[in-house]
Amino acid sequence: MSEHIEFFRAPNDEEARAAHARGPKRGVKTVSGSFFDADDAIVTWENLLTGRLREPEARVDDPRMVAEWVNDGSAVFALSDELVARLVQADLPRLRNVAEAWQAERLRDGEDLDADVALGILVGVAGLAREAVQSDGGVYCWVAG
Predict the structure, then answer these.
(1) Is 90 exceeded by the pLDDT of residue 69?
(2) I need a labelling partner for 19 at 20 to 30 A (CA). Which of 79, 90, 140, 141 fits?
(3) How far is CA 56 from CA 27, 60, 68, 81, in A?
(4) Distance CA 65, CA 110 (A)
């Protein structure tokens, strides 16, 4: 679990990689979260939005790392193009369903994730996805701690 999680958009991997040391630059729009495994969360979201079943432990190069994990627990990774496209297409009822399923999965694993927080994160990341597609960029996640 990461103490600090910031989803953000960037024009490319190089710009996103710059967030590794301290997080996204000031003025960059972010969606914040904490105390969940962001890399597992995006696999769950992609599973739920595509209908595919992939276990986080069985994934290969997913998510795509932009800045590898270091000893302080920080890393930057990219959300897949498919996940970004699915988030762009998802309406509020669909995002609500995904948030509820994500929350239920976390509860089964003994973690407490508030339903409103889960939905807020998904709605925010979907907004970043829309902006990224319009600007021909990508959506990334910085984690630390």
Answers:
(1) no
(2) 90
(3) 32, 9, 17, 18
(4) 27
Closest CA to 135 of 84, 65, 62, 95: 84
d(CA 91, CA 72): 37
- Confidence (pTM): 0.89
CA distance linking residue 72 with residue 145, whole number of Å? 6
Residue identified by tokens 């729009």 is 29
Look up residue 9 and give its amino acid: R
Burial class (CB in 10 A: 0-12, 13-18, 19+), 130: middle
pLDDT digits (tens, 9 = 90+) for 9-46: 999 999 999 999 888 988 889 999 888 889 889 989 99
- Return the pLDDT at 60: 43
1: helix, strand or coil = coil
- Check pLDDT > 60 for residue 59: no
Distance CA 127, CA 107 (A): 26
The first and second tokens of residue 100, run together, are 């509820």
